[in-house]
Amino acid sequence: xxxxxxxxxxxxxxxxxxxxxxxxxxxxxxxxxxxxxxxxxxxxxxxxxxxxxxxxxxxxxxxxxxxxxxxxxxxxxxxxxxxxxxxxxxxxxxxxxxxxxxxxxxxxxxxxxxxxxxxxxxxxxxxxxxxxxxxxxxxxxxxxxxxxxxxxxxxxxxxxxxxxxxxxxxxxxxxxxxxxxxxxxxxxxxxxxxxxxxxxxxxxxxxxxxxxxxxxxxxxxxxxxxxxxxxxxxxxxxxxxxxxxxxxxxxxxxxxxxxxxxxxxxxxxxxxxxxxxxxxxxxxxxxxxxxxxxxxxxxxxxxxxxxxxxxxxxxxxxxxxxxxxxxxxxxxxxxxxxxxxxxxxxxxxxxxx
Length: 353
Description:
It is built from 1 helix and 30 strands. By secondary structure, the chain is mainly β. The protein has 2 domains: 48-209, YVTN repeat-like/Quinoprotein amine dehydrogenase (Methylamine Dehydrogenase, Chain H), CATH 2.130.10.10; 211-325 and 333-353, Methylamine Dehydrogenase, Chain H (7 Propeller). Strand 3 (60-65) and strand 4 form a beta hairpin.
């Protein structure tokens, strides 16, 4: 009788675990391609694309495209406009809704361009630094941070006045960052295999945490309620979950594809997603603040490594193009990458509906 009870208990626990997994998978899985929208050639030649910003309130998706930004309607998925200016090599856009402003980082010009979000016209420039790359708005401190890859710094801007209020030394090459909405910003430092915690009001780094067993951290997202960071590394290629207060890596790491570049978190469903250049979108579920589980791997297209997320529709937006093979190595460029073909830029929209 006792053995029978034990067997029933074991079976019950297994069934419960399976049911929990199935519920998690059904709530965030089943992503597939909904639409592919061609976006044309970048003015001035060449083909380059980087970060995607979704503004849920205005229902717009802003997509970096070399010397311009393409704007998509998040509901109709139609092109809503183009932001153009004296851009040379733009990377990302930070939206400040209360001021009706956007700030666009340009790595070649070492600038942040100010944009009127009603007219899509550039209205000013703010000096950043070498390889101005990722950019975000922190509503907690009401500041815009530009992460300068070549200078290993963050330029901090007051968006109300367009003035630089300070510079934060990061101690290595920054990549994607995330704000907790309370004045703390967490940034990947790819060259030192760390995440740094930045006090955006005090303008200083308050902590440095190793991302081991992952390495070369590049992408990051945050569960703000439970204070969890989701960090994607390129070498080793892993996704890890980290406590945003202690820096402790929690639970097991998960393998992901090559050259991850963007993570997102959906607070409504607990979904975590990571997009990689090899053309995979890895979908996970936050079962609890201490446990992640694998849900599915969605096959997208080569090059689709930057990603935006619409919390209203739960859609994922990734951009890519066609590519020519990488050129032969040179003394200056020992690890050349495949070259995007001009005029083939497009956005892929994935959803569950």
